[in-house]
Amino acid sequence: ETIKIGATAALSANYAYLGEAQVNGIRMAIEEINSNGGVRGRQLELVVEDNQGDAKQSVTNVSKLLNIDNADIILSAFTHITNAIKEVVSQSGKVMIYTATVRNIAEGNPLFFRDYYDAQDSGIALAKLVGDTKYKEIGFLTEISDQCLELENAFKEEAKKYGVEIIKKESFNGAEKDLKTNILKIKEANPEAVLVCAWKQEHILMKQFKELGMIKTQTFHWVAPFLPVADTEDMRSLFAENNAISTWYWFAESGLDNKQKVFFRKYQEKYGIKPTGESAY
Questions:
Q1: pLDDT tens for residues 36-70?
Q2: Which of 116, 136, 173, 191 has its CA 20 to 30 Å from the CA of residue 105?
Q3: Contact present, 226 and 253 (Cβ < 8 Å)
């Protein structure tokens, strides 16, 4: 029999550009594994369900994958999606592999595995970057989320080694479209630099930094401006003017090693587009 892999992915709505890249990578890996004899002689079979980036829809997806498709393994992405389905998968006694920046989902179940870049590691790296640039008093602009809380805690702990202190913290809802009030409150505290934990607002916040006279206050980002909505000439110009620094997790093509170059070539040959970090994970 085949080993059936069930994947819940955002193939439509706002996160489709991420979900499509993830599924492309999954399909390419399965084809390579199957062409090399499968896993102990068994072929892998993929069943994909579109969750539209919605947590409730992902629960419906996974219930189908487990109860109707009889999936042996569940693949998931995003923290909010994986948190929503973890109980359903746990009750089934099946393996889940997920790509999300938080560790606690995998830590809570011996059959759950995580393969992704890490919020805590990013917080540590950002603290070192801020410390190396000799800033001491910084503002913190953050989305309200599990991953940003993990990043914040790791940043604070590492920052102690460099004498770096967050003197003003401003939080916002992940669906927020206007950060001017938050930015102004940080500006009033007169920080030397600003740490940013956001991703859906990257195309908004730097424009508003410019409008509010904060563009020369250097920012340190978890994600950077390279999501498609923010990857424009105007946005790159603003991030360059700010001298922004980021712990981005996709590919820097100038620094690819041989293994990555092979992956790049195979992916482009198969899909006609460049791979992203989502494709690789």
A1: 999 999 999 999 999 999 999 999 999 999 999 99
A2: 173
A3: no
